[in-house]
Amino acid sequence: QVQLVESGGGLVQAGGSLRLSCAASRLTTSSYAMGWFRQAPGKEREFVAAITRSGGSTSYADSVKGRFTISRDNAKNTVYLQMNSLKPEDTAVYYCAAHPAVSSGADYYIREAGYNYWGQGTQVTVSS
């Protein structure tokens, strides 16, 4: 059974940093584009960042551009989300997901539709 397991969440003060990891089992991440999404209380889940299979292209939501960086290590079957300059509005449960389609541009992966594997999420709380 395929599993995506997020880790690295926690409580941090505004302006701080966290690094989320998404480890895959029974799934070869090099065969998937990967994305990060988040869901804040009372809100719908929203796109955060995506990366193509090779890592050659990335895409970010406008709200996190310049602060967050998505990366991947296919040898470790792991995807990361480095989050800097965190704001209280970044508070949410963060999910990683795997998308099987092939595209050279990461903008292709900004919608939830098409992602066929999801992790359980990790809580990120940013205090003001």
Task: Give a structural overview.
- By secondary structure, this protein is an all-beta fold.
- The protein has strands at 3-7, 10-13, 18-25, 33-39, 46-51, 58-60, 68-73, 78-83, 92-99, 117-118, 122-127.
- Strand 5 and strand 6 (58-60) form a beta hairpin.
- It starts with a strand and ends with a strand.
- The mean pLDDT is 96.
Low-pLDDT stretches: none
Count of alpha/pi helices: 0
Strand portion, in percent?
A: over 45%
Largest sheet: 7 strands, mixed
CA radius of gyration is: 13 Å
Please, what is the average pLDDT?
96
* Helix residue percentage: under 10%
The span between the termini is: 40 Å
Question: Would you count the extended β strands for me?
Answer: 11
Overall geometry: globular
| Order of helix and strand elements from N to C terminus | EEEEEEEEEEE
Class inferred from helices and paired strands: mainly beta
Secondary-structure blueprint of this entry?
Layout (H helix, E strand, L loop, with lengths): L2 E5 L2 E4 L4 E8 L7 E7 L6 E6 L6 E3 L7 E6 L4 E6 L8 E8 L17 E2 L3 E6 L1
Parallel strand pairs: 2-11
Antiparallel strand pairs: 1-3, 3-8, 4-5, 4-9, 5-6, 7-8, 9-10, 9-11
